[in-house]
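Revision sheet: structure tokens.
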Amino acid sequence: MALAIIPCGNKKIWDKEGDIGPVPARKAYIGTFHQLCRAYAEMFYPQWVILSAKYGYLQPEDMVPGPYNVSFSHRSDAVIPIDRLADQVGEKALDDFRHLVVLTGKKYKPIVQKSFGPDHHVEMPLLGSRG
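Predicted:
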């Protein structure tokens, strides 16, 4: 069985409802690309996670405490380190999946590969696509 990994996105629920407080990850990200990736993942993969530059691998029910603006594209102390992502892979039993379908752009490929390790097949069907 495969695990789908989708991006979080810049647009978040707090952009529309600033005082909403903590929400489950499945409700936190409201951008169009994220919504489309989530709909695809929900349709074809029983297991999926959101990859956040701040919080790492988020299960749909994991709580996101509030707004943030952190990206893997920008070097910052707020970006989750690769070793912490690798810890999450074990803690959340994501390493049980050998086939990963990563619905993101190319910048996520080395992050996923390094955090999961070499024993996982990483498929990136959106590589080469434009936004």
